[in-house]
Amino acid sequence: MRRLAALIVVALAACAAPQPAPVESAPPVVAAPPVEQPAPVPSPPPSSTARESVAVAGLMDSARTDAAAGRLAEAAATLERALRIEPRNPRLWQELARVRLQQGDYAQAESTAARSNSWAGNDSALRAENQRIIEQARAARR
Question: Does domain 54-141 have CATH number 1.25.40.10?
């Protein structure tokens, strides 16, 4: 019991911090005259290869899971929610075009794939997949 009491006293003593000595204030700093800064360069728009935010990536995964399970309405709603977060994300538009194609909404599939192309930049693989979706939608409407 004595050892326990001694251990507690030592532990409490180690936790007590000494009070710092008062610090004298430094003399006031005289501000330098303002230097004219060049105008900031606007940042370029996000490229199609930029990674999605964590929230959008999670929504995309959820939509893909829903689509694979045949829950197409839920998948479309999830993708539309993700597009409210990142409306310029061409991969989201493409995924929504795929869902619309599966739903049999061929006009929407075609226009959504075309919208994906408008944000695709130089991503030739994405553009090629969008073209495939457009062609499938057109063929299905005939």
Answer: yes
Domain boundaries, the chain: 54-141
- What DSSP line would sit under 4-67, residue for residue? HHHHHHHHHHHHPPPPPPPPPPPPPPPPPPPPPPPPPPPPPPPPTTSPPPHHHHHHHHHHHHHH
Whether 17 has a pLDDT exceeding 90, the answer reads: no
**Eight-class DSSP state of 43:** P
**Does 24 score more than 90 pLDDT?**
no
Are the C-beta atoms of 99 and 72 separated by less than 8 Å? yes
CB hemisphere CA count around 42 (13 angstroms): 3
The answer to whether the pTM exceeds 0.85 is no
Type of residue at 98: R
Is the pLDDT at 23 greater than 90? The verdict is no
